[in-house]
Amino acid sequence: MVATPTRQLSLEEFLQLPETKPASEYSNGEIIQKPMPQGKHSRLQAKSVNAINNLVEDAKIALAFPELRCTFGGRSIVPDVAVFAWNRIPVDEKGNIANVFNTYPDWTIEILSPEQSATKPIKNILHCLNHGTSLGWLIDPEECNIIVYPQNQQPIYLENETDILPVHEIVKELHLTLGQLFKCLKLN
Length: 188
What we know:
This protein has four helices and ten strands. By secondary structure, it is of the alpha+beta class. It has a single domain, classed as tt1808, chain A, CATH 3.90.1570.10. It has a six-stranded mixed β-sheet with strand order 3-6-7-8-9-10, sandwiched between helices. It is globular, with a radius of gyration of 17 Å.
C-alpha cells in the first residue's frame, strides 16, 4: 500500500480555523495543540502576569498577556505569557488593543506542563529570539528551576531560591528571586 501524502496547511489556512482549547500552534505546516494547563502551570502563569502588570500597566510601560496568539516569522504561537512594550501593542482603528497580534513579544515566558517535553517550548522561545524578542524564560514547576534565554547570549540556568531572575529592561523594577516566584505554589 502506498501512503498518500497529506497536504500541509498554509499559515493563512491555519489562521482561518476555529480556535481550540487548549490552543493550537502552527509551525512549518504542522498544527500542534498545547497541553491543557494544570494547577502549578496556571498559578505560575497568573503570578507572572500579575507581578509584571502591577509594576508597568498604570505607567503605560508594558503589558503582560496570558495565552496570547502571536503570529510572525511564518509561525503562529501562543506563549504562556507574552509581554509587550506599551508602544508595540497593536491597536485597532478605535485605539483599543487589537485582537490580532502579528508581531513578536518583547519577552516570552513558557511554563512546562507535567510530562511535557521541553523541546516545543524551547523552539518557540528560540523562534521569538530570532525575530526580535529580547528575553525568554522556560519555567519548570516540577523541578523549581528556570532557564533564561537572553537574546544573543548563552542560556542561564537558575535553580537556587536566592537566584535573582533576569527580567526584560522594560520591567527593570521587577526584583524577583526564584524562591519568591515558586512560593506562590505553596498554600501554607
